[in-house]
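pls design
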């Protein structure tokens, strides 16, 4: 036992236990059985942004856990049983409290609580950025992605509302592509232009023109009283807000839109908040830029497809129809003669017209077949190839020798790879029908050593002495398309003479490798099933 300490003497001399509680660093409160404040210490009143006497009798935000046992944790210790609630002060300030409760005699509950608003806001921001990054990797539309991003920004900082607007390619027109907090409204821009015509200042235009964030304190209060904002006052009043920030979306130094953030009453825009908005604006800008890139690629693909169809129509159907017209003209000239028309001439012209019309019809059917949705995704690669070959044989009379040996390696062929392989086969066969004057076609496929090999050989007229076409040589649109589809997966394509007088198209495409996953502890104990292979992704050659 030691003697009495000086601190003990001070407590005995005047410092009471209630005084220590009153000046404790954490918030402490006593609640009645209905969850209302009975007593609040000085720190607790400061956290609640209200005088202690005003809090007495007010409903507290804490959930009372009757029958709770604190166990080995003390009242002020940090542990897994700590709960979090949201407190909205009478002046509008919104905070998040982490708290722990303990019942005391007299149907009362003691609560210890602290402000974790900044900590939880940081956590939500990290989660929001991670979720947004995952959403960018998905296949959703740009509006789906930006709507999700707006919701993440709204939830991360507990804002009142968020808008994401994008500029069109001309940089002259804005449109809302993502929103959260405000209800959707189709006439929003008509109303905001009406506000501008009445003299309202549009700070988001300032952010777009300057390419820098714009923060406006107490913006909500001004809009509620400014007559210029009357057309949009009802819409902007659906959520209670005060401060406003507009952050531009930047891609390679060019503004592509803005994020408008509407802050709940009591919230202010500090450096960290602005950094978070700028980070989310970067995410939105990447999504917008990626969507624009996809649009350009699709438009380029459509233009190239139109050019190819135009060339094919000109090289085959147009010339054939022209020949039919010339034959019809010959019939007209013969019919205009006074003498009887020789039957042999009529039969010859009729046979030529019939042949030309059948050829034109076959070419048109081939083009229609190519424009259909891909069969490989619906049927699988092998069945899609068989269906295509059957259709072509029925249409053209060609004889096909199929030697399809995909084996167990077929399951390694991804959907996109299957589609490219199918298109290579279809283009090669189309060239045979159009140019080779062949009677039969041999189609071989094989999967061996993680490599898919496709060979299409015909017995037609050959390549007329032209050199073999490989990945380095040019060729027409069809040859270029086949080469690009093979190279997309790190493969090669060669076109050369066949074993006889025909032509051979040979494509080699590497497939993704798989390796067994390392067994975990459960596998070592025998409690887990077989370990599936882990795909390594695309071949290194791509």
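designed seq:
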């Amino acid at each position: 036992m030691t003697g009495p300490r000086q601190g003990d003497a001070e407590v005995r001399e005047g410092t009471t236990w209630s005084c220590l509680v009153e000046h404790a660093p954490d918030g402490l409160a006593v609640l009645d059985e209905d969850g209302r404040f009975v007593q609040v210490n000085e720190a607790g009143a400061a956290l609640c942004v209200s005088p202690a006497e005003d809090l007495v009798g007010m409903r507290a935000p804490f959930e009372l856990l009757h029958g709770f046992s604190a166990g080995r944790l003390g009242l002020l210790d940090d542990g897994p049983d700590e709960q979090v609630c949201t407190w909205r002060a009478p002046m509008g300030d919104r905070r998040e409290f982490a708290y722990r409760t303990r019942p005391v005699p007299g149907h009362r509950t003691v609560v210890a609580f602290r402000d974790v608003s900044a900590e939880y806001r940081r956590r939500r921001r990290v989660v929001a950025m991670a979720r947004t990054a995952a959403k960018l990797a998905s296949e959703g539309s740009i509006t789906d992605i930006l709507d999700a991003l707006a919701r993440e920004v709204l939830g991360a900082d507990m804002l009142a509302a968020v808008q994401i607007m994008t500029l069109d390619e001309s940089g002259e027109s804005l449109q809302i592509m993502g929103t959260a907090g405000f209800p959707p409204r189709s006439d929003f821009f008509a109303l905001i232009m009406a506000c501008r015509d009445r003299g309202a200042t549009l700070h988001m235009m300032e952010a777009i023109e300057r390419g820098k964030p714009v923060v406006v304190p107490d913006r909500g209060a001004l809009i509620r009283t400014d007559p210029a904002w009357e057309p949009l006052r009802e819409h902007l009043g659906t959520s209670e807000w005060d401060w406003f920030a507009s952050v531009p979306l930047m891609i390679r130094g060019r503004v592509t839109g803005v994020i408008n953030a509407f802050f709940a009453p009591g919230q202010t825009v500090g450096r960290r908040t602005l950094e978070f908005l700028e980070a989310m604006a970067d995410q939105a800008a990447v999504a917008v830029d990626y969507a624009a890139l996809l649009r350009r690629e699709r438009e380029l693909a459509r233009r190239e497809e139109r050019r190819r169809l135009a060339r094919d129509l000109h090289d085959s159907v147009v010339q054939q129809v022209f020949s039919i017209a010339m034959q019809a003209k010959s019939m007209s000239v013969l019919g205009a003669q006074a003498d009887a028309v020789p039957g042999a001439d009529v039969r010859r012209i009729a046979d030529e017209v019939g042949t030309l019309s059948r050829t034109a019809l076959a070419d048109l059917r081939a083009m229609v077949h190519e424009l259909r949705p891909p069969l490989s995704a619906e049927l699988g690669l092998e069945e899609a190839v068989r269906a295509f070959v059957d259709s072509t044989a029925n249409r053209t009379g060609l004889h096909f020798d199929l030697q399809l040996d995909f084996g167990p390696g077929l399951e390694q062929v991804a959907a996109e790879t299957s589609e490219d392989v199918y298109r290579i086969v279809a283009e090669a066969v189309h060239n045979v029908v159009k140019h080779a004057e062949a009677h039969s076609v041999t189609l071989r496929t094989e999967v061996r050593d993680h490599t898919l090999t496709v060979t299409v050989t015909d017995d037609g007229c050959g390549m007329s002495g032209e050199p073999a076409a490989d990945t380095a040589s040019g060729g027409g649109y069809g040859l270029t398309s086949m080469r690009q589809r093979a190279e997309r997966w790190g493969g090669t394509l060669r076109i050369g003479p066949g074993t006889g007088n025909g032509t051979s198209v040979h494509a080699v495409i590497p497939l993704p490798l798989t390796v067994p996953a390392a067994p975990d502890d459960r596998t070592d104990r025998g409690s887990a099933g077989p370990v599936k292979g882990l795909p390594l992704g695309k071949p290194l050659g791509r």
